[in-house]
Design goal:
By secondary structure, this protein is of the alpha+beta class. Helices cover 19% and strands 31% of the residues. The chain has a 5-stranded antiparallel β-sheet with strand order 1-2-3-6-7. A 3-stranded antiparallel β-sheet has the order 4-5-8.
C-alpha cells in the first residue's frame, strides 16, 4: 500500500472519461488500497481513480461510517435536492455552493466484484454524485452556483 499523488484541477486526466473495470486484478486491488490510504491521508471523504491518474471506474468513499468501494458505479435513480458547500481533493482549500440530489440509489461492485445496491441520502448521496462525476471527466466546479471561495482552516482560527 502506498500514497498516490492527487492530480490537481487543470490536469488533463481529470477531464477524461474512465474505462470500465472488466475483472478484479491484483493491480486494481492495489489501486483500491492505495486510494483508501491516499483519501484518508488527505482527510477527504471520497476519491476517484482519475484523481490519482488512473482512468478506471473506481471510487472510494468514507463519510465516517467506514470505507465504501464502488467499482463500475451507476446511479439508478435520484430525487430531492440539497444545496451545500462542496470541496475536492483536486482543488484543496477551495469550495463552492453546489446543488445535488438528496437521495440516490446506485449499483456498483465491491472489491471482490460482487454487485450491490446502495441507497444514500444527504452527505453520502452528495459524495456518490461528486465522485461519479469524476469518472465522467467532470469536477464540482462545473456546477458551482456563484463563486468558488477559500475554505478557512479551523486550526488557523
Amino acid at each position: 500500500m502506498a500514497l498516490r499523488t492527487i492530480r490537481m484541477q487543470g490536469d488533463p486526466v481529470l477531464g477524461k472519461v474512465c474505462r470500465e473495470v472488466v475483472e478484479m486484478t491484483p493491480k486494481i486491488q492495489l489501486l483500491i488500497e492505495d486510494m483508501l490510504d491516499t483519501m484518508y491521508e488527505a482527510e477527504g471523504v471520497g476519491l476517484a481513480a482519475p484523481q490519482v491518474g488512473i482512468l478506471k471506474r473506481v471510487v472510494t468513499i468514507d463519510i465516517g461510517d467506514g470505507p465504501l468501494v464502488m467499482v463500475n458505479p451507476v446511479i439508478l435513480t435520484s430525487d430531492g435536492e440539497q444545496t451545500a458547500g462542496e470541496g475536492c481533493l483536486s482543488l484543496p482549500g477551495k469550495a463552492g455552493k453546489v446543488t445535488r440530489p438528496n437521495h440516490v440509489i446506485a449499483k456498483a461492485y465491491n472489491e471482490n466484484m460482487e454487485e450491490y445496491e446502495i441507497e444514500a441520502t444527504e452527505l453520502l448521496a452528495r459524495a456518490i454524485c461528486h465522485e461519479l462525476d469524476h469518472l465522467e471527466g467532470h469536477m464540482y466546479t462545473d456546477l458551482v452556483e456563484g463563486d468558488i471561495y477559500d475554505v478557512i482552516d479551523e486550526e488557523e482560527e
